[in-house]
Amino acid sequence: MASRNLIASGRKIVAIGRNFSEHAKELGNAVPKTPFFFLKPTSSYISNGQSIEVPTGCEVHHEVELGVVIGKDGRDIPASQAESHVAGYTLALDMTARNLQDAAKKAGLPWSAAKGYDTFTPIGDLIPKDSIPDTNNVDLSLKIDGVTKQNGNTKDMIFKVPMLIEYVSSIMKLQAGDVILTGTPAGVGPVKPGETVTCELGTKGTILSQLRFPVVARPNKP
Amino acid sequence: MASRNLIASGRKIVAIGRNFSEHAKELGNAVPKTPFFFLKPTSSYISNGQSIEVPTGCEVHHEVELGVVIGKDGRDIPASQAESHVAGYTLALDMTARNLQDAAKKAGLPWSAAKGYDTFTPIGDLIPKDSIPDTNNVDLSLKIDGVTKQNGNTKDMIFKVPMLIEYVSSIMKLQAGDVILTGTPAGVGPVKPGETVTCELGTKGTILSQLRFPVVARPNKP
Ligand SMILES: [Mg+2]
Ligand SMILES: [Mg+2]
Ligand SMILES: [Mg+2]
């Protein structure tokens, strides 16, 4: 499935926070004892090669993540049956206006704007489920202008994919086309207009997805 | 348009917080100087007559709201052109697990779970735009078992509909089928299994929508 199909038909994006302890620590946060998540709007999707926009006044951070694409509707899905609800995987970025998120956290306000700007969810094509037999051994990396910034492996996830599907579906039913973003490894940081972000997903030495996104300033209002 | 079309095709629900000063005060919050919003998943929609579920451990509050249904895609929509992007209006409830929201606010965490459980967005049919010539004079009321709990008018909104469309679309593009929930008047409070919630929307003495939702306990996991 090309990312444009996901972008056209996706219903929701459920993004897990602080799922890698080194990343939780680098932002000064406690390591969570239960998962938590926020929603991103599907209007924030862009596909490979499109531009990530930096809105005026926003410090925009990259977060490279494994995305789980739901293929079958379900509610209260037990972890033991989670895999049967998965269509496949994808490589995605959870772009974040870190300064707005920090302000929201302090004020006890929602993260939705900080996480939801247009272009804040760059996403790749569907990776067939069979290509990733073990979701606990996926390499994720990200470079800015060729310099490595993030380089992690999903073995360091605090909450594993089946448990995340169980948790999310105990609150909100999952529907075909929904995407769960499973959290980012350490190394997040700002992107600036003029830079180019590249990222890669692989397993056991095989590269399964490579994406490239130029960074631009969000155009001013007309 | 029947609510089932909205439920089937809607992309996102953008819900404005604290848009009535009496409601902001009743929860001990400051009256906001700029709007803020959170996202609800479209998987939380139910239509007239379906049951609102109370999950175990949740204190679930009713919030009756005017919904704005987007009819035309747009980004950076100026308030002066906002009306041309509106397909019509709807009556909706922004059901809220208040205890989870309070905990999230204290911890600086997202509101998404507290606002996003299945059945937490009961919604009526589309009310044609022409039926509401003035969005600043819409009556909203809600009863539990026939006893009035909320009874307000959108004249008391802090941020008016055109400004809300301008604000939201300056962050995330609006797409046909998106719904903006515009905030609730004072009088929010808990609903309990066995009760029946009814709500009404009207303008200048004409009732435009009447909805009814039984309240049940969320069934236990299989
Ligand atoms: Mg949120
Ligand atoms: Mg993230
Ligand atoms: Mg509300």
UniProtKB/TrEMBL annotation, chains A, B:
Top-level lineage group: Eukaryota
Keyword Zinc-finger assigned: no
UniProt domain Fumarylacetoacetase-like C-terminal: residue ranges: 12-209
Pfam families: FAA_hydrolase
GO cellular component terms attached to this protein's record: mitochondrion
UniProt keyword Magnesium, yes or no: no
UniProt name for this protein: Fumarylacetoacetase-like C-terminal domain-containing protein
Organism encoding this protein: Dissophora globulifera
Lineage, top ranks: Eukaryota, Fungi, Fungi incertae sedis, Mucoromycota, Mortierellomycotina
